[in-house]
Design brief:
Layout lengths: L4 H16 L12 H14 L16 H13 L5 H12 L5 H11 L14 H13 L1 E2 L5 E2 L1
């Protein structure tokens, strides 16, 4: 994800220039020969190094949508994917599926979290717990003793 198409295109141009001056395919960018073989043959036949059109589905969200989603999640930690879906639709008029939201969150490094559910202690429980802590200790064998 860290490479832009322009970055890749510049790298491919450099690789093709290296091959044209007699460099070996296995020496280009210290990668396996098979990695440079296909772009090299495409460059020989078409004279271009750009990616061909792919059959993959186009992206549903734009980078602005991704940034909005990321910022929203950072500000509202416990929002569900369904709530994020509605929020993105209302704020940016972008319709995306819940699994797409889920995948984006994983791509950003956010994992599912649930708030910790703890039963609050009553004053009586606190007193009894404090009394237990004061009267019990750990003996030399590592066991609890009175």
């Amino acid at each position: 994800d860290g490479f832009s198409p322009l970055h890749l295109t510049k790298g491919r141009h450099l690789a093709m220039a290296y091959l044209q001056v007699g460099g070996r395919q296995s020496d280009v960018a210290r990668v396996c020969q098979s990695v440079t073989s296909r772009p090299a043959s495409r460059h020989r036949t078409t004279g271009r190094v750009h990616d061909r059109p792919s059959s993959g589905a186009p992206r549903v969200t734009e980078s602005n949508d991704d940034q909005y989603l990321r910022t929203y999640v950072l500000r509202h930690r416990y929002t569900t994917s369904t709530q994020l879906q509605a929020c993105l639709r209302n704020a940016r008029s972008t319709r995306v599926s819940r699994p797409t939201i889920h995948n984006q969150l994983h791509r950003f490094g956010f994992n599912a979290r649930r708030p910790l559910q703890v039963t609050p202690l009553t004053p009586r429980h606190r007193r009894e717990r404090l009394h237990w802590q004061v009267t019990w200790s750990i003996g030399p064998s590592g066991n609890l003793v009175r």
